[in-house]
Input
Amino acid sequence: MEQDRDLYTHSANLITMETYCIGIDLGGTFIKLAAMRIGEDVHDFFAVRQIPTPESNAEDIAGAMADGAGKLMQEHGMDGANVLGVGIGAPGPLNRAAGAIVNPPNLPQLAGFALRDRIAEQLGIPAALENDANAAALGEFYFGAGKEVTSLVMLTLGTGLGGGVIVDGKVVHGANDFGGEIGHMIVQPDGIECGCGQRGCLEQYASAGNIARQAVDAIGEGRDSRLANILSEAGELSAADVNAARKDGDDLAAEIWDDATRYLAIACINLERLLDCDMIVLAGGLTKAGDDLLDPIHRHRERLAWRIVDHKAPLSIAALGNDAGVVGAAGVAFQAFGG
Ligand SMILES: [Zn+2]
Output
């Protein structure tokens, strides 16, 4: 009975006392840290900071992550009594059951390392591991574009194309943790070969990196374009160069941009048919194009979507920018340990 009373007291404290979750976003160059404050109704986040990712070995990386989190806790009066847990966002693929990163291209020294348990052990608080795209989607869900909704899909249009799916407030992982890989949905049968082994994946047409790569490939094959001058002077192209050339009347750039936005519209429609989500959020470097990106996606959606009802999930640009991953990592801990 004594034990029951202690448990009751502990729960009562959790409800009345301000509690926190720590978020750590592990990148190849920086480790980002933030805290999420959990009040009765309102959640907010604070103390976003970053430290360099050690280049040496897995132990040093885990040590830097735990030290950074420990300092943040100390500075803000957090400890094992008022922190529910730490969430770690890391590049996939992950083995979430083992709390390890499987084979990260940018952090090869972490392959197979039991990162989650090592961080938990060093900080003395429970830890949860999530892939960085899902963590970013949770960040937008709790604090960004999706804070008023219960389901959203996020597409991160960067070098590649990452995805995160949240339904009824929970990240969709699927049976084997491979759910939400929106970048590898096939949008063009027998299309461009993808690194994953499929052909015609969305990522090959609509990530910032692949928009630029398609222009480089076409110029290499002899297509006439004003982008050829930029390529020969700078040695590379960006998606922003393609958008600028398109606005200057360049045919190749216009074709590539139109394809990218058409495939994104197809992905939006297919995701809506599957999930009937409240919102679709776009993030990543390509979203700097703003309405130059959104307007053609809207036009293609209007043309291609069904006529059964006149409703489309609102399409928004992410509100948190580069902070989505780290505050979402704190959200991962809240989902795992917040009751
Ligand atoms: Zn693929």
